[in-house]
Design goal:
mainly alpha; Arc Repressor Mutant, subunit A; Tetracycline Repressor, domain 2; 14 helices
């Protein structure tokens, strides 16, 4: 586990300098001070390493934003907290954020594209839940257009400070985007993206497969976990997936037990969505 993380950390340094395509496994192993054999014990290929890095970054990014949205009780602060969390996270992980934006613009790797689309859909789901909570029926006809406007803000402004090295005032930027979003929600009158159009380019998630994947991940974390409260919570939540018996309040309590653990954030996020909390 430690060696795997070392490879990811060192490879990220090289990818930031050279990009994915121009960095070889040989260069990665030399930078890590390990043999190629040691590399292939952790990753079957460079592509697998790249996908692992994407998962590592995007899982943290998505779960942090989802958790912030669901746990900000004051609607007056919700949009601000959403934007602030996004750009603060981009700032913290600027090297990898730069790589992702550059690679998306030029990548023809199907696995990479599918992986990014998957996380893009998860982010759309978070944004949809937020704007429906904030604006209700007022944005029923234009909610998908509003989602794409918000995603446009995220992409455009992140590129502004990632690639132009401009001074970043996250507080001011978040306030500005709150104002812009509220104006759009209030004044958009001509919808373009309908629910029918969304269904055409979004494939449904197989819930049975999703459940199996969550259980598989939980079993691995249960083996690794040393903290007794988190470990027992994972065991009980896994049992709930297999044989539902607990009431929602208990499930929420168990999720709170694991939500702040760095190795359980993705499981917590997946379960909150599975149980529709």
């Amino acid at each position: 586990m430690i060696k795997k993380q070392l490879i990811m950390d060192k490879a990220l340094e090289l990818f930031a300098q050279r990009g994915f395509e121009s960095t070889s496994v040989q260069q990665i192993t030399e930078h890590c001070g390990i043999s190629k054999g040691a590399f292939y014990l952790s990753f079957k290929s460079k592509d697998e390493l790249i996908l692992a890095l994407i998962d590592h970054f995007m899982m943290q990014f998505t779960t942090n934003i989802d958790y912030k949205v669901k746990n900000t009780k004051d609607n007056e602060k919700l949009l601000y907290e959403f934007f602030y969390t996004i750009f603060h996270s981009f700032h913290q992980h600027s090297d990898f954020a730069k790589i992702l934006i550059k690679e998306q613009a030029q990548s023809f790797n199907e696995e990479f594209i599918l992986k990014m689309r998957y996380y893009d859909r998860l982010m759309e789901k978070v944004i949809l839940s937020m704007i429906e909570r904030l604006y209700g029926e007022e944005i029923k006809q234009i909610k998908y257009d509003l989602i794409y406007c918000i995603k446009g803000f995220m992409k455009t402004y992140s590129e502004l400070f990632l690639f132009y090295n401009l001074p970043l005032d996250v507080d001011l930027l978040s306030q500005s985007l709150v104002e812009k979003t509220n104006l759009l929600a209030k004044h958009i009158t001509i919808p373009f993206i309908s629910s029918e159009l969304v269904e055409l380019f979004q494939q449904p998630i197989n819930e049975d497969l999703k459940k199996e994947q969550i259980i598989e991940t939980m079993e691995q974390k249960i083996k690794e976990m040393e903290e007794p409260i988190e470990k027992e919570s994972l065991i009980l939540l896994k049992q709930e997936l297999l044989e539902p018996t607990l009431n929602p309040a208990i499930i929420k309590g168990l999720l709170e037990n694991i939500s702040s653990h760095p190795h359980c954030k993705w499981i917590s996020y997946s379960l909150r969505n599975y149980f529709e909390f």
